[in-house]
Design brief:
Shape: elongated
Number of domains: 3
Radius of gyration: 29 Å
Structural class: alpha+beta
Largest sheet: 2 strands, antiparallel
Helix content: 25-40%
Order of helices and strands: HHHHEHHEEHEEHHEEHE
CATH architecture of the largest domain: 2-Layer Sandwich
CATH class of the largest domain: Alpha Beta
Oligomer: single chain
Length: about 270
């Protein structure tokens, strides 16, 4: 009698649990259909045209957010620097936006054999932390590349490596996302068109005399390059030469006459 009662209790309990589960499942199914948010199938297609690194270079939280913004019209088809813009334009039914590929460039020539150091640093290999140390790091130049790889670790595309004490960018791998630009505490890295032929490989704003004292490859702000340029593409501000890439024709006269040879072809 006791055994029969126990089995019946188990069967009843099982039936109740099953019935409750079935009812809850039905209710969830109805709620899912009623409150479902319709998604545009173009979002997935645009997402496939993005690199998937979630680097944030587009200004959005990640590639998914960028794809949604493009489809909604809140961002242009070329919002992602590394996206396949022509394909995205085709998905969106718009004309492809003409854009020049940008790549990161390290404005420094202060390799280990050219720069003077104040002391030998032994600690955490991180430029941001090193920038907090009195003297702004071990190198005499407080404006150049520190060479401790914060940009290397920030890059999602393995496009930056430290060579002989300073960072170098592989333009074939670089997507121009700009994450390294934001990471560098010395603002040594800039984005420039890959089509530009010449660039100033220095970031020092010290006077020429001071720059000569600690670096054999630093800009001294002499202005000879600006005088050679027939298109007004070079100006000297704060003892440092700057190239306007929109005006530069790539003639090379500035590089030829630069006494410090820091205007180089890249």
């Amino acid at each position: 009698m006791f055994l029969t009662f126990s089995i019946n209790g188990v069967l009843i309990a099982g039936g109740v649990v099953g019935a409750v589960g079935l009812i809850i499942g039905l209710l969830l199914g109805v709620a899912a259909k009623k409150f479902a948010v319709e998604t545009d199938e173009r979002v997935g297609k645009v997402r496939e045209c993005l690199p998937g690194s979630n680097c944030g270079g587009c200004g959005f939280a990640g590639c998914d957010a960028c794809a949604e913004a493009i489809v909604k019209g809140d961002a242009p088809v070329n919002a992602c620097p590394g996206g396949r813009h022509a394909e995205i334009a085709g998905i969106m039914g718009t004309d492809a936006v003409e854009s020049v590929k940008m790549a990161a460039y390290v404005r420094c020539s202060g390799t280990c054999d050219k720069i003077t150091v104040k002391y030998r640093y032994q600690g955490i290999a991180d430029c941001k932390k090193l920038a907090l140390i009195p003297g702004h790091g071990e190198k005499e130049c407080i404006y150049g590349c520190m060479g401790y790889g914060s940009c290397v670790r920030a890059c999602h595309f393995d496009a930056i490596h430290i060579v002989n004490g300073i960072a170098f960018v592989d333009t074939d791998k670089c997507t121009g996302c700009g994450v390294c630009v934001k990471t560098c505490p010395n603002n040594v890295i800039e984005l420039r068109p890959v089509t530009s032929k010449y660039a100033v490989a220095c970031n020092s704003k010290d006077k020429g005399k001071d720059t000569r004292a600690y670096c054999t490859a630093g800009c001294i702000g002499c202005g000879i390059c600006a005088k050679q340029c027939e298109n007004g593409a070079i100006t000297v501000e704060n003892n440092l030469a700057h190239i306007d890439y929109e005006k530069c024709t790539g003639c090379g006269k500035c590089a030829e006459k630069c006494p410090r040879k820091i205007i180089i072809m890249r």
